[in-house]
Structures are given as C-alpha cells and as structure tokens.
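FORM 7B: Structural annotation worksheet

SECTION A. Query
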Amino acid sequence: MITQEQIDKENLKRLFVNINGFPTYLGGVEFDVKDGKHIDDGWYTHGTKVTLTAKETIVGYDFKYWDINDIGRPIHPNDLRLSNDEDCLYLRNVLGLGQSDDIKQYFDGIVLDVESDGYKKALTFYERAINPTITFDMTKSADVCAWFNIKSVRFSVKPQNQKMGYTSGGGCVFYGTEMDIWAKPNDGYEFTQWLDGVKENPRHVEFTKDIEYIALFKKVN
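SECTION B. Predicted structure
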C-alpha cells in the first residue's frame, strides 16, 4: 500500500494501463522502465521513463491505438472538423487548451496550417497514439488504454473466363469468417475445379488472409 507520506516524499506518479476489446484477453502490454524507480502497482518516481508495447495475444487481432488520458480515438489533424463537437473537444484536449480558449482560432489559424505549432502538436499526438510502442516520462500521472480490433480480410471470387461461367462475389470480412463460395457455368460449359486444385463446389472456406479464388470451366463436348 502506497501512503500519502510516500507520495509526498518520493514525488510518486501513477500510471494506469488498460486493455480494451472483446474478449478482454486478446492483447497485452509489455513494460520497460528506465531512469527511475518502479515502486509498486503502477507507481513510479517523478521522471521515470516508461516504455509500453502493446501486443495481440490472439491470432486475428491487431493493435489499433492508445487512448491517452481519455482523449479518445486519435484523429489526424487533416480530418478534424470544426462543425463536430467531439472533434473540437478532442483538439482542445490534445493542445491542452482551457475552456475559455477560442477553439475556432486553433482550427482556422493554427491546426489547418501544416507549418503551425498547433498542427504539428496534433500530428505528433496522432502518430504517437497509433504506434504500438509508446514512451512516457512520468512527470505526471497518466491513464492509457490499448485498443485492439479484429483484423479485416479481403477476398475475391471470379471465373478465369467470364464467357464460360460466373461466381459468387468478393468483399471484406472479419478474420476467421466462414462461408460457402460457388461457381456456376454458362450454357455449354461445366465447372472443373478451382485454380488451386480444389474440386469442391460450392466450397466452404475460412478467411484468415487476403485471398483470391478463381473458378475454371471447360466446354461441354
């Protein structure tokens, strides 16, 4: 148990690290602590350098971003919109503005100018938040959350020769999705096999990577 006396004496800062996603064990965070002292249960002495690396623990999931101090999903400064209240709040938090600051000034005069200090700060925050490895100098307490999402897989299904037949379409699905694909011949032709040698039609497939399925047909004698 960390006491208030210990906090005052050693000027301790607290780092909260969370994982967000479903299931909750789909990712993890590795810690690397330098130039300071790790006291206990996320408490560090002032100035400690802490590096966090988010890694997926379940195949099919990817790290997406860090939510730093509840600022939310990182937004590229080019995508910020003054008409969106959430974007205004996000930018205010990233730039450390007070409630009395004119947010419009930062959109019109600073953020939209790619050479401005405000734009560069917003871009730095964005690039930092989407990097799976992030470093903190513990000069103040922090709360970070690593977000993981299931991967998307693109696939296509098409005939080698469109005059001979047609197939089910392609698209984008979540990693691990299972479905049947099929190929049907036009009049005067018959299905022979898929390009990879599989003869099953319809064919049951599980999507774990971007892939293309090509159906082969031949003319009926």
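SECTION C. Observations
Residues 110 and 117 are 7 Å apart (CA to CA). Residues 77-119 form one domain.

SECTION D. Sign-off
Analyst initials: ____
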